[in-house]
# Entry
Amino acid sequence: MSILNKLQRLAKLSLCDWVLLGQLVAFAVLLEVGLRLFSLPSLVQMLLRGAHSRLGVVFPLFQHKVERSQLFESAFLAARIVRGQDSCLLCSLLLFWLLSVRRESAALLIGVRKDTKRLYSHAWIETPSMIKNEVYDHSQVFFPLLRFFNENV
# Structure
């Protein structure tokens, strides 16, 4: 997607979308800090506790006013803004948290694959109806090493 197309998409965002995106960017920054301070299992547990708290019912603001696909696009964009191209873990953590806030079943997976010279890692979300953060089904390419379920599974 060209930079012009991206700018045109951003120009079409409503005030509600901008507020939601700003909150997701701020939360993505907190997740980045959390990834440096806590182990991944501890951070996932904190996300789940927060998603099921009173604050989790209302934060992020306006999340219930947008469609699920727009919420996911905002999460992808927020992760890219904070982390750049290599944002699969951050994006997957955001999606896992958002699905947990919405009381939707989800699993966060961390997997690896090896070619002749390199070892690659990837993070993705699986729900009963889809695999998110995917161009194609990475669960067929990456061997899952870690799997975290939210309490809705």
The mean pLDDT is 83. The helical segments are 3-11, 15-37, 40-51, 54-58, 68-83, 88-101.
